[in-house]
User: Which sequence fits this backbone?
């Protein structure tokens, strides 16, 4: 007996002890595995001219309610003993751990398929699971068996044809702590319903065979039973043979008017392993130079690993009824990587996966899909704001990153899809909405980096902008400012005649504001500011009297291309951007009482002035939402001042 790897064991424990109410999903997972295995063999046959016909493939379900055995067999690609071990025993993938984490959060086993551990759902309903498999082209067959907790065995066995049979020894209803209805999984009508509900679109026939009770008379041992269930011819006489359970018509091949919303939703959830309904379904049928059908879904939430390395974008690609690729990356741009779905086309692809990448017709489809997705998202934005905001909450970073990473090349596609919080309105607005609401004399689109509207409102630099009646966009995500630097300007007109530039409220130079009146004489100030600059050294590029502050004593102003927020983001990146620094100037409000104090100290007590300078600088950083640069120096300056 071999032990499961620790991670696999954890998933198994979840399955075995599951009190999950939708245990029925196990059937869908096993049928989906069977269908995938057939896809693989059919694809191989086309590629290598093996001459297998699509009509020869099938999935058989047999139910023996007396012996409580349910089997799911396919004549697909099968598995060698190594593959049985790798795929069902040790599962080296990180999927199992991710699954465990996700389950702790959502408690919904329905998502199991996302993690590449769907097979284990069999243990929700079975005491024992056996997998008899013969790889295509191999002589030997192997049987993998496990009762879950202890481990698994793999032994040599016999099997007539290539493919896999999963044998489930269905749990008994009695003796369980929680009342369950395992019996129903052996029942003809339940099986029919489940196949209809979850697997109707599977493109291979799914047949059901009920094994009659009187089969018992043979007194066969358990292992023989299993072999019997494989050998269709032997049992054909004794059993009632049923028709094909699934319609085999993929949903995307049906007329749109014949499909209900809930059918689309069920298909999406089953096929793409989500437990939430999608926000939008895009079903398009294009005929012309290129013929294709696309069925795409905009999810309501990001997949668990969406922003991680293990996420793979892509659409399923079918040509002429053959699934060519599980995830064709070429069909979808990175910035719409959250879209899931499939494309079915009649273009003759020279099946090899490499050629898919360079196919000009596929590129054309991809470009059409990009336009289509954009227009559907805009439609959502205009006509169902609440749904769009749900979407935006999940994927805004992706859209903004799309602008940044292409150095602005994709900005025309994405610019009208992005939104930021408006400080005046405290809600998300688009750039179009911002510009439409701009005051006549307003020169710039103002933005500020921070965590909340309240924080920005409290920022000294925001005071004059807001007092002038101008709105400020709140940038909360790391990527925001990087993306905006790529956009540079926004215009309502396509020719960019009236384009408005973006301006950080912390930028130096002209902010396009009417200056507050200053009563202070400035002629003798430079000696004071020079002294403070000297005290602060490299921390600031300049110290000066401010023309923009009203009530706050100090603020930091950005002088170069790198903002303070960008400095923070760049420094947090792994490839050591330590040397990248934002150039900032410290501005002091000459009308603030502190200013008189500073002047006084400059005349009478330069040592104390140094402590003041240190405290004011750190305070300006804190207001910006930055961390204290030199905590120990600040602490000692504060204590020195308190002790005076
Ligand atoms: P997933 O199907 O998401 O990868 P599973 O846990 O359901 O995860 O299955 C693990 C692997 O076992 C599959 O990727 C496949 O390689 C193999 N497998 C499962 N069922 C079959 C089958 N009926 N025929 C061939 N291979 C199978």
Assistant:
């Amino acid at each position: 007996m071999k032990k499961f790897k620790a991670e696999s064991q954890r998933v198994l424990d979840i399955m075995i002890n599951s009190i999950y109410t939708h245990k029925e999903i196990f059937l869908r997972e096993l049928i989906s595995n069977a269908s995938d295995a057939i896809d693989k063999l059919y694809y191989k046959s086309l590629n290598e001219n093996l001459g297998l016909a699509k009509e020869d493939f099938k999935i058989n379900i047999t139910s023996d309610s007396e012996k409580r055995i349910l089997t799911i067999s396919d004549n697909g690609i099968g598995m060698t003993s190594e593959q049985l071990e790798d795929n069902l025993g040790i599962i080296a993938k990180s999927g199992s751990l991710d699954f465990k984490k996700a389950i702790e959060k959502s408690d919904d086993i329905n998502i199991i398929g996302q993690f590449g551990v769907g097979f284990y759902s069999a243990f929700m309903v079975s005491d024992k699971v056996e997998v008899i498999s013969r790889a295509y082209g191999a002589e030997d067959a192997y049987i993998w068996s496990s009762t879950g907790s202890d481990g698994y065995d793999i032994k040599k066995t016999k099997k007539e044809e290539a493919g896999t049979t999963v044998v489930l020894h269905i749990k008994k209803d009695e003796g369980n702590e929680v009342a369950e209805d395992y019996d129903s999984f052996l029942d003809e009508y339940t099986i029919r319903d489940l196949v209809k509900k979850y697997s109707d679109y599977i493109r291979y026939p799914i047949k059901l065979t009920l094994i009659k009770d009187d089969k018992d008379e043979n007194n066969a041992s358990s292992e023989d039973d299993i072999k019997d269930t494989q050998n269709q011819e032997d049992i054909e006489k004794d059993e009632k043979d049923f028709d094909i359970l699934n319609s085999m018509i993929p949903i995307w091949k049906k007329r749109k008017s014949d499909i209900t919303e809930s059918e689309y939703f069920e298909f999406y959830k089953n096929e793409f392993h989500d437990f939430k309904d999608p926000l939008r379904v895009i079903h398009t049928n294009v005929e012309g130079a290129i013929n294709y059908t696309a069925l795409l879904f905009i999810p309501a939430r990001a997949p668990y690993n969406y922003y991680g390395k293990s996420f793979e974008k892509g659409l399923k690609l079918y040509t002429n009824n053959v699934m060519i690729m599980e995830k064709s990356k070429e069909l979808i741009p990175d910035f719409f990587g959250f879209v899931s779905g499939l494309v079915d086309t009649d273009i003759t692809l020279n099946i090899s996966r490499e050629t898919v990448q360079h196919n000009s017709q596929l590129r054309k489809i991809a470009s059409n899909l990009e336009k289509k997705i954009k227009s559907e998202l805009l439609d959502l934005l205009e006509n169902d704001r609440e749904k769009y905001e749900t979407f935006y909450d999940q994927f805004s970073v992706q859209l903004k990153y799309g602008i940044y990473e292409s150095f602005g090349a994709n900005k025309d596609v994405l610019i009208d899809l992005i939104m930021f919080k408006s400080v005046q309105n405290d809600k998300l607005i688009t750039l179009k909405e911002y510009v439409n609401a701009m005051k006549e004399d307003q020169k710039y689109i103002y933005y500020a980096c921070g965590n909340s509207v309240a924080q920005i409102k409290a920022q000294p630099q925001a005071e004059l902008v807001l007092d002038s009646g101008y709105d400020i966009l709140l940038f909360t995500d790391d990527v925001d400012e990087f993306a905006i630097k790529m956009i540079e300007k926004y215009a309502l007109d396509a020719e960019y005649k009236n384009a408005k530039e973006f301006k950080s409220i912390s930028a130096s130079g002209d902010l396009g504001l009417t200056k507050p009146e200053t009563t202070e004489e400035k002629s003798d100030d430079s000696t004071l500011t020079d002294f403070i600059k000297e005290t602060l050294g490299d921390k600031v590029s300049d110290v000066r009297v401010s023309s923009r502050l009203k009530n706050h004593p100090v603020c930091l102003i950005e002088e170069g291309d790198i903002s303070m927020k960008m400095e923070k983001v760049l420094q947090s990146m792994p490839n050591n951007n330590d040397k990248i620094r934002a150039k900032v100037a410290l501005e002091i409000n000459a009308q603030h009482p502190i200013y008189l104090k500073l002047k006084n100290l400059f005349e009478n007590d330069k040592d104390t002035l140094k402590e003041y300078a240190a405290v004011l600088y750190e305070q300006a950083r804190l207001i910006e939402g930055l961390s204290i640069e030199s905590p120990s120096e600040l602490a000692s300056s504060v204590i020195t001042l308190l002790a005076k």
Observations:
- The chain has four domains: 9-241, 251-390, 418-504, 522-643.
- Residues 25-48 form the longest helix (24 residues).
- Residues 9-241 form a domain with the Heat Shock Protein 90 fold (CATH 3.30.565.10).
